[in-house]
Write a structure and sequence with these properties.
elongated; P-loop_NTPase; four-stranded antiparallel β-sheet; VapE-like_dom; Putative virulence associated protein virE; 584 residues
């Protein structure tokens, strides 16, 4: 029997040329149309027949110490390592007999890219291997053994015994990725979108937190959520490329992460609050008295009930109307600000704002917050009062997140609490219903932190049981408290005294006149000369008269429409009174 040379795909042989003797190589009968080829099954049959006639049992591959028993052959065999390679993106092509052509874990040391069949894993029972075997044709991998390979792909040798003794869930099949002719995954938006929603493929779970209004991620199965950063996008690209993706672009990864998050929303604040347990002991109604040192009155109880049900309501029903602001009034150093901050279950959910800030900046600061302090009422006089009222009343905010083209709207989840050292801070007597002043003394910050989760849990129960934010009693009782904290103009006392002083000529009280004019009051009550009366003085006396119970109106006097002030009661109960028009 002559020598039989068997060559695999990709190997070379000399079809025609010059023999070492100098003679040309000739083929009997001429060159064949193509070299004869046999299948793997035919090869195994041939080998078995040869083994029957010749003393052949095993073969040693050059450069490899792995002994192969050719008589052991199981077409389509698989093992744990092969399934691991399939599930984790290592497999490029499946061989006809169960072998996996894979990405080499040591490809950084290769001198060239090679073709996708240069590195293979043979599951136990294929190609004559009783145990799984790694083979790479690159010279840099000649010294690598199976243990090196298993460690490189993330499987330790001592893992296998545990796998056989415990029940392991079947790995999910990979998505139907579009691949190139070498088996690499194309970096298309469709492929990338399929990949990032598979935590078992990219190692992380991507979702959108509606409370924080941002994209979050957690290691697969951990439940420990944190915000996506620029570095995390880069890590995700690296993971995908290790799993067989072609290079993934920066814009592409941001688009598919946003899509994946948008399709998997959750609300961390609702989840947190619903997970708290209440011990059944009432605390929130007397909270201001027990923790902030206020007097124990129906008013302080009502304000406390409002604040806590508003806090719970803004979590459970995002954007619910909560347009009143408790204001803690107390001396410097009593712990007002620390107490307000302690209301937040985490420092990350607390912020401090000022009315002097721009709306865009405020919107960013309020995103993902539960408590906001209006510290010392800073900025209260930097905007028109109507703007401040509108700001407090708003239920939603607009802002443009980083790397987003369009503005997004999010519902407010926080409650405002003001703090001040001043005794007088309410400037508008007619629009104070939104402010709930409370006199505090020594704030017990430790007690707030100790009872915080129980307070939040009770607030949730009260909000749900009573059907919403409890604001009516606080609003009604606050009306009698506002006067104490209203800013007093120096002219106010003078004007009030003048209103109750009889006129020297008519002996009539100015308060009893049907209406008053600003210029007359400035001249006769304040003593200003007409040439010193300007817009500023008119606006100031207007506020004073409104605090005295008057309202602006218009009357036709001497054929001209004139701005006047009428007592509020006169607007609803007209009386025939003489005009109070002073003459020089």
């Amino acid at each position: 029997m002559g020598i039989i040379e068997l060559l695999a795909n990709g190997q070379q042989f000399v079809a025609c040329g010059t023999h070492s003797s100098g003679a040309r190589i000739e083929w009997d009968g001429g060159l064949p149309d193509e070299p004869p080829a046999i299948t793997g099954e035919q090869l195994e049959t041939l080998w078995q027949r040869l083994a029957e006639q010749l003393p052949v049992s095993v073969t040693t591959e050059a450069g490899n110490t792995k002994m192969r028993d050719r008589s052991a052959f199981t077409p389509g065999a698989t093992d744990d390592t092969a399934e691991y390679l399939d599930a984790n993106g290592w497999t490029l092509l499946d061989g006809a007999n169960g072998e996996r052509y894979i990405r080499c874990p040591f490809e950084d040391g290769h001198s060239s890219g090679g073709d996708p069949t240069s590195t293979a894993y043979f599951p136990a029972g294929t190609a004559g291997f009783e145990q799984g075997h790694f083979k790479c044709l690159h010279a840099s991998c000649a010294h690598r053994d199976d243990g090196d390979f298993l460690n490189a792909i993330g499987i330790r040798n001592d893992d296998f015994e545990d796998l056989t003794s415990t029940e392991v869930a079947e790995p999910l099949p990979l998505p139907a990725f579009e691949r190139d002719k070498w088996g690499r995954i194309e970096a298309t938006i469709s492929n990338a979108a399929k990949a990032v929603v598979r935590p078992d493929f990219v190692d992380i779970d991507i979702r959108f937190d509606q409370f924080r209004d941002e994209i979050m991620f957690a290691s697969a199965g951990s439940g420990q959520w944190r915000a996506f950063t620029d570095a995390d996008y880069a890590r995700l690209r690296i993971t995908m490329e290790k799993r067989g993706f072609k290079p993934v672009g920066r814009e592409l990864i941001r688009d598919v992460v946003l899509l994946a998050a948008d399709e998997q929303p959750f609300d961390s604040a609702i989840t947190w609050l619903n997970g708290l347990e209440w011990d059944g002991v009432p605390r929130i109604e007397c909270f201001y008295h027990t923790h902030f040192g206020t007097a124990d009155t129906p008013y302080t109880r009502a304000v406390s009930m409002y604040m806590w049900t508003a806090l719970a309501g803004r979590v459970l029903e995002p954007g619910i109307k909560a347009d009143m602001v408790p204001i803690l009034v107390g001396p410097q150093g009593c712990g007002k600000s620390s107490g307000v901050e302690a209301l937040s279950p985490d420092p990350a959910f607390f912020t401090e704002i000022s009315f002097a800030e721009k709306d865009d900046d405020l919107a960013r600061k309020m995103r993902g917050r539960l408590v906001a302090e209006i510290g010392e009422l800073r900025g209260l006089n930097t905007k028109e009062l109507e703007s401040i009222k509108a700001f407090v009343t708003r239920t939603h905010e607009n802002w443009i997140p980083k790397y987003r083209e369009f503005a997004t709207q999010f519902p407010r989840r926080l409650v405002f609490v003001g703090t001040t050292n001043e005794d007088e801070f309410l400037a508008d007597k007619t629009g104070n219903r939104r402010w709930l002043p409370v006199e505090v003394s020594k704030v017990d910050v430790k007690a707030i932190k100790r009872d915080l989760l129980l307070l939040w849990a009770e607030a949730r129960e009260v909000f749900q049981r009573l059907g919403g934010i409890q604001f009516r009693e606080a609003e009604q009782l606050a009306a009698s408290v506002h006067e104490q904290y209203t800013i007093k103009d120096a002219w106010l006392e003078t004007v009030e005294k003048w209103l109750d002083t009889p006129d020297l000529m008519t002996n009539e009280l100015p308060r009893n006149c049907e209406f008053l004019r600003a210029s007359d009051v400035l001249r006769d009550a304040i003593g200003l000369n007409p040439d010193r009366i300007g817009k500023r003085e008119e606006m100031r006396i207007s506020n004073v008269l409104q605090n005295c119970g008057y309202k602006r109106a218009q009357r036709r006097i001497g054929g001209k429409m004139t701005r006047i002030f009428e007592a509020v009661s006169n607007l609803y109960q007209p009386q025939n009174r003489g005009w109070y028009i002073l003459t020089n």
